[in-house]
Amino acid sequence: MDKADMTDDYFRAFENRRPPEPLPYSPGREMLWQFLATISLVIGGWYIGWRWMHSLNPDALWFAATLALAETLAYIGLLLFVFNLWRDQPIRLRDAPALIEDVDPGTSEAGRPISVDVLFATYNEDPELVRLGIIDAKAMDYPHPIDIRIHVLDDGRRPEMRAVAMEEGVGYITRDTNEGYKAGNLRNAMEQTSGDFLLICDADTRPFPTMLSRTLGYFRDPQMAWVQTPQWFYDLPQGRRLPEALSDRLGPWGRKFGNAVEKVAGEWWVGRDPFVNDPQMFYDIIQRRRNRVNASFCCGAGSIHRREAVMEAALRAFGAKVERRVIAAEEEITLETRERNVAPDLLDAIRTEAVSAEILAPYRFHVSEDIFTSIVLHSDRERGWKSFQHPYVESRMLSPQDLMTWTIQRFKYAGGSVDILVNDNPLFRRGLTIPQRLMYGATFYSYLGALWNVIFLFAPIVYLFTGVAPVSAYSNQFFVHVIPFIISLELAMMVGTWGIAGYAAKSSYLAFFPLGLRALWTVLRGQRIVFKVTPKDRSAGRFLKLVRPQLAVVGLTAAGVVWGLGALLMADTSHSVTGVVTNALWGLNNCIAMAGIIRAALWQPPATTDMSEVS
Question: What SS3 class is residue 152?
């Protein structure tokens, strides 16, 4: 069987899967969420105030103040998250535009159909994988005549990729270098295409027929710069029901036990989405609720861009950079010559040199070019460019196939975001509104969470081994403050994210701490975040070396529980029964959070002929 047949066989197993419908808007549920969120924030503020003013252990301020600071920083993140989720909007689709004047009222070409360039950016992915996306793109329908031009942007310069493009009758665009990685690839394509709109696709993106008919309507607003559609990984492992999984291991008794568990807890799936790749929480909750303040950002694949907006923003940024170069050179010359003015001929030469030195980059040459471009467009107050997160899934993509792939992808996200935060902080960028600053701030602040999450993970370990408490006492006052906050927060988040299971996402965020710390350290040392193409093939083997920090948390926590119990039973110690139990339960929660990524490191596709269960 050749490679093309193998590719077809793999994807054929998932062809019948359909994406979930967008979460429906509910005014009543939104009001309940806002009420519960307000209660939670008030109780949380009361708790944080009490922690600083009344609970710190004066004999161990190094520990007590560190944990209280971590809790305070986490509370700030909660404030930003609540602001993000505060309000949703009803789902409304606009009619597909028929002619160019419907999306560009000032056009001089009234009467012509809209043109769209569909761009598949690829580097080293299997050409047969890209072919599947091309075939699906050719099947996109539209209720009016439309000019759709499909192009393969091959930064790998591969004859076999060129051959696929020729066989499918689509354009093939390449270049001599890989300057700017994906952003440079897109820039090169924009120089050789002319469509009114750009549909950005990764090598594994497979558009649904409705991709354009349900999204171009937003561009009836002439200020709409881009529309992002949800990304959906259609090959996520479906897992197996608990009774079936236990039956294979334990026989009939395992099936009975699994059935008993499901009677109490409902359906329980084993091996479902082991890498927590399902992005519905991000697109259906976080991104959608940013629409209300025009702050949903571009996420690359599956986004549609107005060419005019991208080029205009690039030209403005280019002009600003040229002027900064000219001003700097002019100041240097006047300081050296002590002349008030620079001769006009010399100034023209300086400007010419500055123009040739700068690069016109429609998409910023950055590992996170998508969010960077979003910030640039949103900050253009003069044009007032808008964005929108479309609620419906309009394409399908491949999920990371193993923990190594997952690690490469998440480090790229984290490193790129932290790099923007440190070097081009949007909070201080002119042109952004305050709500937009808060929304972008929420995104970048979340990547700092590794700093306080590592404290939350190791705080119970410190107590269990030393008996040193971060609070003056594990007294009734402590529980009176902390338990209402935990309960109110869980209730609020359950309602605020209704329809999407939230525990897996929270656990993944906590277990993400090693990558977050690595990204922070890389950027703060001034090292460049290197762009790496996310692999589309599964690497064989297990990946325990990638989860050593998480294994350390589990091992140290377990050892700490044993040590703490032993100290209570056999030693004259500062441990207390309440303190050991409280920290043991806290540590257990941490271990459960770590367990997911550890299982992902060990996960292997089931050895079964049912390809629907293979990732």
Answer: strand
pLDDT at 405: 83
Looking at residue 78, what is its pLDDT?
Answer: 97
Alpha-carbon distance 124 to 533, whole Å? 8
Question: Cα separations (Å) of 386 from 86, 87, 168, 366, 369?
Answer: 20, 18, 35, 22, 18
Three-class HEC string of 33-72? HHHHHHHHHHHHHHHHHHHHHHHECHHHHHHHHHHHHHHH
Q: Is 266 exposed, middle or buried (0-12, 13-18, 19+ CB in 10 A)?
A: exposed
Does 137 score more than 90 pLDDT? yes
CB 596 within 8 A of CB 222: no
- Beta pairing class for 147-154 and 115-122: parallel
DSSP secondary structure, 416-439, as one string: HHHHHHHHS-GGG-TT--HHHHHH
Residue type, 2: D
Distance linking the first and last C-alpha atoms of the chain:
20
Tell me: pLDDT of 322 over 50.
yes
Helix (H, G, I), strand (E, B) or coil at 203: coil
DSSP state of 397: B
Alpha carbon of 205 to those of 124, 139, 158, 437, 606: distances in Å? 15, 14, 19, 31, 25
CA 119/CA 131 separation, integer angstroms: 13
CB 195 within 8 A of CB 113: no
CA 40/CA 176 separation, integer angstroms: 56
pLDDT tens per residue, range 365-400: 566 778 888 888 898 888 899 999 999 999 999 887
DSSP per-residue letters across 76-131: HHHHHHHHHHS------PPPPP-BGGGT-TT-S-TTPBPEEEEEEEESSS-HHHHH
Q: For the chain, give the longest Cα–Cα distance.
A: 94
Judged against a pLDDT cut of 90, whether residue 502 lies above it is answered with: no
Q: How many residues in total does the chain contain?
A: 615
* CA gap 236, 600 in Å, rounded: 13
- Whether the full predicted model's pTM is greater than 0.90, yes or no, is no
